[in-house]
Specification:
- The complex is a heterodimer of chains A (488) and B (472).
- By secondary structure, chain A is α/β, with parallel strands linked by helices.
- Chain A has 16 helices and 13 strands.
- Chain A is globular and about 65 Å long.
- The model of chain A has no long low-confidence stretch (mean pLDDT 96).
- Chain B is 39% helix and 20% strand.
- In chain B, helix 6 crosses helix 8.
- The chains are: A alpha/beta (488), B alpha+beta (472).
- Chains A and B meet through helix 9 of A and loops of B.
- Bound molecules: zinc ion.
Amino acid sequence: MGKYGKIAQLHSLMAEKKISCTELTKQYLDAIERDNASLNAYVKITPEAALETAARVDAKIAAGESIGLLEGIPMTLKDNISTKDIETTCCSKILKGYVPIYDATVWSLLKKQNAVLLGKTNMDEFAMGSSCETSCFGGAKNPHDTTRVAGGSSGGVASAVGANLAAFGLGSDTGGSIRQPASFCGIVGLKPTYGAVSRYGLIAYASSFDQIGPITLSVEDAALVYDAISAQDPMDSTSSGQKEPTVSSLGKDIRGKKIGIVKEYFEGVRPDVEKALQNAVEVFRSLGAEFVELSMPSIHYCLPVYYILACAEASSNLGRYDGIRYGYQTEHYTDRNDMVCKTRSEGFGKEVKRRILLGTYVLSAGYYDAYYKKAQNLRGAIVKAFDLTFEKCDVILAPTVPMTAFPEHYAAKDPVETYQTDICTVPANIAGLPGISVPCGFGDDGMPVGMQLLGPKFSEATLLNVAAQYEQAARETVFRPVEMGVSL
Amino acid sequence: MKNWELVCGLETHVELATKTKIFCSCTTEFGGEPNTHCCPICIGLPGTLPKLNKAVVEYAVMAGLATHCEINPDAKMDRKNYVYPDLPKAYQISEYDQPLCRNGYVELSNGRKIRLARIHIEEDAGKLVHERGNTLVDYNRGGVPLIEIVSEPDIRSIDEAVEYLEKLQTIMRYIGVSDCKMQEGSLRCDVNISVRPAGSDKFGTRTEIKNMNSFSHMIKAMEYEMERQIDLLESGEEVVQETRRYDESTGCTEEMRGKEDANDYRYFREPDLVAIRVTPEMLEEIKARMPEDLQVRYNRFVKDYGLPEADAKLILEHRRIADYFEKAAAGIKNPRTVANCITGPIFARLATEAEKADFNVPVSAENLNALVKLLDEGKIRMNLLKSTLEKMLDTGKPASEFLSEKDLAGISPDELRKICEQAAADNPNAVKDYRAGKEKALKAVLGAVMKATRGRANPQEAEKILAEIMSN
Ligand SMILES: [Zn+2]
């Protein structure tokens, strides 16, 4: 504990008065000023509020009070997490100028701990995309190679954290949106069990899939942040909070733990990515873990099930953006229908419109049984398949993405092919399972490769410990810091 | 010329009387400055989530129990997607295929049972305000809990429709789940209506008249629509299935939207809410809280208390009044007297329906009971009871404050005879008239006796004595 954690490191620097919170915050703000132009990770920077919080933390330290682990730590939030008095747009033109009048629960939890919010980070419009390029602010770039994408949809958070422009951030994961960009940017991303973290204030994409989670520089940081935000929330009736704290379980021996290799996850994986994963398997063997070969044919149905159900929910969730009460409104119109129509035509981007149309179609009377209902039934089957699989192993090891970060504009060429890149991440969202992406080396192109570990519902403590054990054993070979941002 | 029969079913919306809205803690109070009873949740701001008010489920279960419904232990809520400015989320959270209550009925006075297909809960929408060429939205009503009570097409006449709706109104008020005020929109209904040759068992094509918010409009709209459909059918034309609106100014119904653009609501399970579980314990607890069944209590009022049906109905219109009556009538020989006190002098002081519902009466049931007992015991007469009750209503004080020892002492037959003789002597002209055959003249002398005894005399006895004295 505290060996590699960025948060623990910054915390002790402040607690030991080697740096003040204000100085630390200023360093991050300066770095953002310098590097954000090439990364486009932040879409909104909030220096005044950040320095105000920092001053409060400094006053506490000066008064000799002890500070919490997350207190004074500079961080960021994906732009779909509502922040009171700070514009929150989901990187969509339709929400430009929208300033929430309330805080998302995750943000109020962190706010109470005096975490320092540096600003809001880039994302695919309404979290729909796998490359962060559908943002109305333009895409976020990969800190390992700025001609490549950061990944989607929480690409801004991953880019900011990967480039040391924030110590940690919160993203949201509907079909892999935390794990995929974390994998592309060579950092850690945790998608918690559905319901473990309150969704209140998260601007919905697909309600039964969405989950907020941490994007961090280490597994230990992920555990720390997860423990801080996973509380049962009366404002979200689907929230249950966590089952056991995770930080205290880090450091446990994983000898004898059964790790499942589900062969369907490896179909179509690029050879260099598979090689990196093979190396990870060897590390686990050296730690005394055992491997079981398994098969889950229902993995093949996950993509269509995901796109049908997620788009159906999205088409309903996005109906409220009509230009009447907040956000963008078209300038010229004749009557109400014309206004709503033009506002939505001009306000939503192509990918969002595509998914709204798809969702409306699969829910409509003539097609409901053929698509939505069938997908719902398959969802049940996939949940059962996972239950059976986890009778045979403790965690599943899989690629996070079958490839490394792709060059810019690759996604726009073939949307369906881009959907395929979600193949390894969506099953966890369909079944509501926790999943974590941990860096496990590099591809032939020199870009980071992510390893995904999946567990049964509410197994975060085990999952994070298994990931942490791997990370500590393999850290020197799988982690390569970028020459950007704050170096502390 | 054929004889036509009405086939009608009602979809009734009842606003529940919970203190807070269905998915947030905003007040459900009627009125208020526009958009002041609102929060991020009920105006559907991005990122907000609904949280189901438990009281809404309990109220709906009570409504179901009071109408003999089966209660679904595993209900769920669904989204009904449609875009309208008064619906801020662009969907309404309602129940689609697993409503909370099913298969109930309401019994009419002719013994016919109007079956209920379902009762489900949902949220109300806001309200559009048209002002100086602008349309504004007031979301105060948005998120107020509703139950929708859907009847089978069992109604066969306009009278039955009116009785059915009145009965629902009475039941819902009686069990306390709604005030059912049509003028404030807390009770409103859609009428599904068709006609068919009398005796036929086939259904004709129906139309739906939306949003009836008064009984008189409903009657007029149904009369008009029935006649319109009969005219169409008799002239060989067809009735088109459509939604119609009733125009109060013309008394006609007119097409609102045809079948061709019927809405596809794209229902699906509301992912932001967990399933509604009505556990056996919860059901037992609600049952224990329910008042006695309205019909059972009505029968008891008529049979055990001997109340005329009209009185029983009046008293049972509000549960508080019924409870008050039963307390006041405890141990009384003739409970009709108590009923008369309520429907007479007491109701005379309650001007509005709301005042009746509140039933804030200064005379406690115990004090009324004590007063009527004096009558039972022969200590006072009816007219003294009435005047005393008025004084009690004025002051809130018990009868003992207004009745002296003398009032309660009663009058001996000797004393009464003396008073009668004196009265006859004081009114020689009346006695003369009576002897000449004018029987009415006796009443004037009787009045003098009652006045002299300040109402304590038994008028029948006094009359007997007077007749004797005046005949001689
Ligand atoms: Zn509210």
